[in-house]
């Protein structure tokens, strides 16, 4: 009868040791899933933001109010970028560049009928500090992930400029 009791005493901490070995792997996988889910969310939000800015741009409008002075309207180029920035809520992505080109040259949104391309590049900080410490440099600076550029091309509608 004393033999099973000794056996039980020798395996008393086995579950704790197994848990301690499995927990770091579980936590790493969990945070990786959260990070990739946030990356997908950011990418979709950026695509939606560029679509909204493009829809606004092709109409030729320039009627966005200046946040500092609501009575004043922003110029066309700044209006397009303001529409784009309004859609970036919750991304945490830092805008590296926002470029408008008309037939290969920089422009302010293009003339009626012009083919215009909007392109934006971003660097996003890691959502979780754990992965930022594991991957300190992803090519965009310490603790940031480079996202591929978001680009869309439209043909401007006929409008009165």
Helical coverage, percent range = 40-55%
Shape: elongated
The strand order across the widest sheet is: 2-1-3-4
* Overall mean confidence score, pLDDT: 81
Structural domain count: 1
The helix count comes to 4
Rg calc = 26 Å
Strand content: 15-25%
- Category by helix and strand content: alpha+beta
How do the helices and strands follow one another from N- to C-terminus? HHHEEEHE
Low-confidence stretches: none
The total count of strands amounts to: 4
- How far is the N terminus from the C terminus? 97 Å
Major beta sheet, specifics?
A: 4 strands, antiparallel
Describe this structure in words.
With 161 residues, this protein is an alpha+beta fold. The protein has one domain (2-155). The protein has helices at 2-10, 14-58, 76-86, 129-134, and strands at residues 94-102, 105-106, 115-125, 144-155. Strands 2-1-3-4 form a 4-stranded antiparallel sheet, with helices on one face. The longest helix has 45 residues, at 14-58. The N and C termini lie far apart (97 Å). The model has no long low-confidence stretch (mean pLDDT 81).
How would the blueprint of this fold be written?
Elements: H1 2-10, H2 14-58, H3 76-86, E1 94-102, E2 105-106, E3 115-125, H4 129-134, E4 144-155
Antiparallel strand pairs: 1-2, 1-3, 3-4
